[in-house]
Structure formats: C-alpha cells, structure tokens
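Query protein
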Amino acid sequence: MNKPLCAGLCLLLLFPLAALADGPFDGTWKVDMSKVQMPKKPDVLLLKDGMYDCKTCVPPVSVKADGQDHAVSGHPYLDSIAVQVVDAHTVKETDKKGGKVVATSTTTVAPDGKMAKVDFSDSSNSSGAPVTGSAELKQVAAGPAGAHAISGSWLTAGMANMSDNATEITFKEEGGTLNMSAPTGQSYAAKLDGTEAPYKGDPGINSVTVKKTGAHSMVETDKRDGKVVAVLTSTVSADGKTMDVHFDDKLRNRTMQFVAVKQ
C-alpha cells in the first residue's frame, strides 16, 4: 500500500475532531468506527514492468518495485519508499524519513482480485507508539493486462483494529482558547475567533484556525506553509454526547464523515 494512501487512511482519523468552548465539549472523544463514511473517490495504483505508481498520491509516486529504498520528494511524512513484490497478490511497502522507518504496510489482494486487505503500522506523525490497524479495499476498476493484482482503482470500504491512539483526542477550552492534544503527539492552542495559531507535532500541518459558527458547531482549518490542507466542520449533539464531523481533505480532493463519542 502506498504511503500517501496509508497516511490518508490514518490521518483522516488523526485530524482534530473540533470541539467547542464550555464544559460539555471538554474531555476525551473517540471515533465510532462503525459510523465512519469513507471517501467516495478511489485511489489509483499501478504495478507493472517493475515499476510502482500511485497516480492519485499528492504528489504522484513512481518508484521501482525492487524492494530497495527510492527517494521521493514533496511528501512531508517520508522521503523514501521501498516496494517489495512478495507474490502475485501481495505487496509490502516500507517508508522512511531520514533513514528511519516511519511506516510499513502489507497489501494482500483476494484471489478474485475484487477485494484487498491492508495491514499497516504508521509512526510518521506520532511521537509515541505507532498507529496500527487494517483497511479493506474494494476494486472499482481493474488494472491493465499483465499488471500485478494490486493495480487498479480502489475504494476504502472500511477500517478495523485501529489502535486507540488513532481514534482518541482531548479538548479543553480556557478563556476563549481551545486546547487540543492527541496521544500521537499533536497539539494546538487556538482562539475560537479564527485567529491563526501554531499546530505542533505533525509534519504535514503547521498552523490552524478554529472558528465558532454556532452554539454547537465550529469549523477548523488546517494549513501547511500557508496552504489549506483540510477543513473540518463539527456539530455537537444537544445532549453533548456525540460530535458529527465532516472532513474535507483539500489536498486529495476527498471527503468523509464520522461520529465521535464523548468518553
């Protein structure tokens, strides 16, 4: 599985879940994995003639599939990728940054080629234990003749066995400032009036704004080097027990929705 796709799967859950001021919104929230609506746009992969291409990665990836490290640029979470063809249905990827392994993934395509399972471990944006889990992919378009089984267009049908550090986040509002912290090391302290603030602990995000839009709703905008990478619109239920979150991935032009439950 390509790193941007893996990162995308993980980071869609790691992006802040956006809470508001006042006591009912403080505390730790956990994503209800049974209520996650995954993106509707597929990822396009091609493994043929010894080359691996992720055509929908941002920026696109093209490296030799020889199991060796190959430099890639423009990706904040990694600087090299090694793609190993294990067999006709299995591919292993190892991502590194500064010579250190930051993520591994093994993609196994079903015999009929219509489904695939991805098992991954990702510490590329974690200062503690890596995020681990698995994803189920559904093929919506086959790859060309003679290509490896991983080739084609794939939708993420679901995710399972996600480690708690990927699905939990804590908020605390103090004096009009929202403090966010995550088990993976991300944090920010942003005023609820939309003032830009530093975003810490994530190579792919370095600033954030949080804007209250209603008594139970707000919009968070994450940026990297001044460019918007994600927008999260969150609404807390009247009883304060759940948050509905709409996630708009601006880099990859994908959206998803999920529900977080107050712990």
Observations:
- The longest strand covers residues 131-142.
- The radius of gyration is 19 Å.
- Residues 43-164 form one domain.
- The helical segments are 3-14.
